[in-house]
Amino acid sequence: TRSIENAVRKSNSSRVVLFSSGMASLKEMSKVDKFDSKFIYGSLKREEEDVVSKMCPALILRIYALSGRYARNLQNYALGDFILQAMYNKKLLLKNSSLVLRGYVHVSCLAQMATKWIFSDLNSTPRPLNATTNEIEISELAKLVANFYGGLEIKYTENAGTTESIYSADPSEFLKLLYLNNINIPSMEHQIADTASSLSPPSLFSEN
User: Fold this and answer.
1) Which of 169, 187, 205, 207 is closest to 86 using CA atoms?
2) What is the pLDDT of residues 122-158, one digit of tens each?
3) Of the candidates 3, 137, 11, which has an alpha carbon nearest to the alpha carbon of residue 82?
4) How far apart are CA 65 and CA 67, in angstroms?
5) Whether the Cβ atoms of residue 97 and residue 155 lie closer than 8 Å to each other
6) Please, where are the H alpha helices in the chain?
7) DSSP string computed for 77-88
8) Strand 129-131 to strand 58-63: parallel, antiparallel, or no bridges (unpaired)?
9) pTM for the whole thing?
10) pLDDT (tens digit, 9 = 90+) per residue, 170-185?
């Protein structure tokens, strides 16, 4: 945040696209553990959003789950984890038998939107946008990945969790901006293929 602040202060015509996190929305929730690491991280991201938005015209995009070949640490997202399991374990394991919902966005949508907004005369959005284009339940995502790799087996782990987990938010304003700028949204099948094209195995799989 300090680096962004210093750069903006040295320029009289700065426009900033800030890729934030869906965790920033935790700051707005009343029923949340204030000492949880996710809340602390989210609070820092929300502070960064506030600082940037007060300094210059800004487009703030909150990312929940990411896909695409140029994204980093994809194994930390369920999609990347499933692809790695498919590539090296030849089967998929689900670790939660309850509802697990994730809101994905492909890196191409983010890159195109950021570039077009930076070089436009559009005003700042009144609030951060939820950068989500494809909301999907994790078990359905697993089926798409399994089919992509020829119909792999999908199983639940012996101690599969039963806690509902939703990490997504209303994407209507973000989708409207994509539409106005003629940015196409890749299908989940395309996102799976594109993500798989650049993944290599980590030492451990993440939770999904």
Assistant:
1) 205
2) 888 878 999 999 999 999 999 999 999 999 999 988 7
3) 137
4) 7
5) no
6) 2-9, 37-55, 78-88, 107-118, 138-148, 172-180, 188-196
7) SHHHHHHHHHHH
8) parallel
9) 0.86
10) 999 999 999 999 999 9
